[in-house]
Design brief:
Shape: elongated
CATH class of the largest domain: Alpha Beta
Distance between the termini: 44 Å
CATH topology of the largest domain: Rossmann fold
Strand order of the largest sheet: 2-3-1-4-5
Structural class: alpha/beta
Length: 490
Amino acid sequence: MLKEYRFQKVELVPDIEECLENAKLELSKKQMLLKDKKIPVVVLFEGWGASGIGTTLGKVIQNMDPRFYNVVKMGKISENDARKPFLYRHFYEIPENGKVTFYDHGWMDEVTGQYLRQEISKKEYKEKIESIQKFERTLVDNGYIVIKFFFHLSKKDQDKRIKKLLDHKNTAWRVSDNDTWQNKHYDKCINIYEKYISQTNPAYAPWYIIDATNKKIAQLQVLETLLAYLDIRIRKGKEDAPLVKNIFHLNESIDLNKVDLTVTINEEDYRSELKKCRKRLKELHNILYRKKIPVIIAYEGWDAAGKGGNIKRVTSGLDPRGFTVYPIAAPDKGELNRHYLWRFYKRLPKDGHIAIFDRTWYGRVMVERLEGLCSENDWQRAYNEMNEFEYELHQWGAIIIKFWVHIDNQTQLERFTERQNTPEKQWKITDEDWRNREKWNQYEEAIREMIEKTNTDFAPWYILESVDKKYARIKAMKILINEIEKRIAK
């Protein structure tokens, strides 16, 4: 592919400037069409150092409306980003519906660079390639257009450009250590780049090789390719994405109807266990920080099941500087206009810290499913997408614990009624709670399917029997303690 690429000496056609201007004007029209149709677009620019990516990008966007695009320069990984999952900083920058994000280098440059410099092993490199494949696929499946350009230069041309830039004090700064390293190890780099492109070149997120020998021709190539690809995708419209088969081992299904909700704990034992659990959690939190192990605790459950009180007791044993609780309500406008997992990605903890989610990404297959807030294809796909998301967190090194806080129908009714009749508790009950209660049977089916399809080894579900809230609190704390102890013992 790259090694066999034949660079041709290209002479500028007389009307090249006119062609470029017409293409830029046409792209500005396409941009407005994307905006009107609320289609988000990701454009990735990768390639050799000194290949003219920055110049080309500047020319491509010249006539576009800057309110509806963003250019992201993905340089050196910051200290904060280094403490997050691999794809965090790339996922964080995805555009809202109707907007375009241009990445000036991105996940390819990061991963191939790490591998070429032997900063990651062959196994880690393979895992990151698989992560990228899933990342690009889930963007497309959720309505994004993804298009990727690789700017190609011969070793000789790259060397010539680097020397020319270095010869002038006003341009020397544009040559990075990576550019010169690349040129020195050109053959080694081209082998890795070629394999990478081959492994990440699906029809739904294709690579286009740009001959960067002549800058104006390169600009025209990019513009014409963008226009043609966007035109096809706009005319095609959003189609239901294929359902991907789950590849992860699933634990034995949990029958909620057989869960013993009569279990209880007496007051004396509760106070004694609470004290011991708090003490142990405090000790373990220090170890988590020292070992830089992130923890993600996800709470789902019936309304009035006692999630808030459970979270309060769990956090009472933690250092307040090392955890954050995220109460998840309806998404705001910016969140609603992006991939549904984006708002959870941006709330992930740093390594050594704990993130506790009061409601989670599983709203996709419960409330969004039952209230018709997403299509059937969307929520059917989501089981695998969420398994993949959690697997990414697991590969990063996170401990993932998912709690379903469980009560029966009658207990919920009693708690709703008590809230309704107690002035200081009335803020806890809404008309929506009563409406959701009318769909108890539908929710039961959705919950059963959710647990069945996402109960993985690396992110298992734990049922907290919460008719006796105190019993559920102690159980949650003990599960957390056990999971942390298992990890630090490895």
